[in-house]
Amino acid sequence: MPDDGIRIIDIDGHVREADDLFEKYLEPPFRARAPRVEQVANGQMLFRLEGERHHRRPDETPFLIKDDGPPANENRHLATNPKQRLVAMDRDRIERGLLFPSAGLYLTSVQEEDYAAALCRAYNNWLYDYCGEDRNRLMGVGVIPVQDVKLAIDEAKRAINELGFKGIFVRPNPVKGRNIDDAYYDPLYKTIVDLGVPLLVHEGSGAFLPTAGADRFAGQWFFTHTISHPLEQMLASLGLICRGTLERNPELQVVFLESGAGWLPYWLWRMDEHYEILPFQVPWLKMKPSDYFRRQCYTSFEADETCLGQVIEITGGFYGRNTETRFLDGPRRARSDLRPQLRLE
Hints:
37% helix, globular, alpha/beta
């Protein structure tokens, strides 16, 4: 533990998948069409995931496009080494970290169900080996094929029981016409409860999935990324709470990630206001939406959010800290700015 007594646990770290991940880890029946990295017209290096589709929309990019020919994200391989990650964690005084995918965020958009399940198994097996560098500090999060609930349940059980992962990741977006609150997923949520791990909800911009704001700002990462992460989490929390998922699954623990925390006080108030005015439209709810959130939900935060202190004071929530593959030095700011209020457990 650091000298100041504050434990820093990163609940939303991201790995960068190895270029040959699927060629090495995908099962033989599917290996001939294993996703391979290729350079697209604007310089990005993306996995060709299924048919002619890449893992995310090529016209959206967070990278500065270069005129001299090198790939826009040419140094991504530096983030595939767990030894280097542990060095960065030591530098930022991070005790442990939950590890989410990068390209793997987009496996949910694969149409073929059996292929999607095989891709999830391949990614999870690769992540298991990655975490082998230090299983106490590098904690895996399982990716599951929500395209089919039975396949999703099977992989969730394997990820937790056999691979020792600490949580199950899903996206907030609709998949195959189903929202995250669809009763179709209740058997999955019961399984996650039985496994004793949280449901971890994480957005990823540029997916071939219905996404908040994508219709208005197509191909403009600045806008789609600004919008999609908080708004998709707001929509997901609205559905899970007000469509009755948490009422039906009272032991399910849900964490909303990489959307900041500033949206939360307003959104809880907004849902409560509508519950007060229109309770007859949600007769299955037995308490205020904010009470469901406080009973079962959590959110991460960004260390440099300007209103973070007020959010923690208002909600009294449990918060984590997001670090992407660039390893932001947010913990230092968090320690200096929020020392009286920050609670990490």
